[in-house]
Amino acid sequence: MLPPRKTREIRIGPLKIGGSNRIAVQSMCATRTQDLEATTAQVRALVAAGADVVRIAIDNNADAEALIEIRRRCPDAVLSVDLQENYRLAERVAPFVNKMRYNPGHLHHHEREKSVEEKVAFLAGIATQHGLALRVGVNCGSVAPAFLEAHPGDQLGAMVASAIAHCEILDRLGFRDYCVSLKDSDPQKVIEGNTRFAALRPDVPIHLGVTEAGLPPDGIIKTRIAFEQLLARGIGDTLRVSLTVPNPRKHEEIEVGRAIIEDVAAGRFRSVPPNFGKGLNIISCPSCSRVENEAFVELAQQVKELTRYAAEKKLTIAVMGCRVNGPGETDDADLGLWCGPKTVNLKRKDESLGSFPYDQVLDHLKAELDRLIAAQS
User: Fold this and answer.
1) In 252, 273, 356, 374, which residue has its Cα 20 to 30 A from 7's Cα atom?
2) Same domain for 161 and 14?
């Protein structure tokens, strides 16, 4: 049996999460939102696989128009929209979704003359008007500068503080139908961050996720490490498994999520392979509609194959699929690759090493990896 959860109940359209409701499993479309045929097919495939909520990213007006048509084609799906960096799009898409996700770390980018509180009030007002839920989605690689400055050298503390601050804003506004996520690519940080938040706000429903978990099977193992620990503590009301897989395999995120919940409920905890996480760590984001070149998934697999010779080296390589999260979320990696439409940007920590075509970047990556290995010797 899963332990009882203390969170309050909220509604996402016809779905209830929190409290004694079953843990909802979500996924996110990896197709381009404006590709109506592909995105409609993926929404339907995810729902057929058992997804309780399907998330779609919008980044501009054309995406918003496409979303309206996707809703018309998928009238019964429970849809969540990822507002990305343009929170103002909420007004256009709200009538066609059940939930909106915003990232507190992105609100300062637009309309700088307005306070964060004003922007959250706008989102809460739209959500109230249309009966929507909100998700406050805090990510390790995009924590708002004000919180990083207030917690120097403590990114986890900054994440938790950001989440708490936004809960307080929504509470002051009288808005209750919200949940929170605190995500990192390190499962131990996911465990600690969510445990700390749950202790401070046991009433707030939590969405669990290990961001950029990566390719199976490692991505599944990382996710299990975090989810097993948290679910066993009564933390987690909804979750998403974020895997780097081709579009036809996105349903695997749902299957893995359900299996983890069932295993924890039955008292089955999978063992972690010896030395897992002690050597080379490759993190990669889940494919989503922000990806501007589908070759990203293949590139992530190629990086994994290319770097096998360095498996015992204590290094991190990050492979990110888009310009939204790529630049910031590769800063902490020893080597980072973030993918554009035609080229891949190669980095060493936060230092740019250049932009290279997809068919050339692996040679440059190997040369840089060899340099780091030589420096460790």
Assistant:
1) 252
2) yes
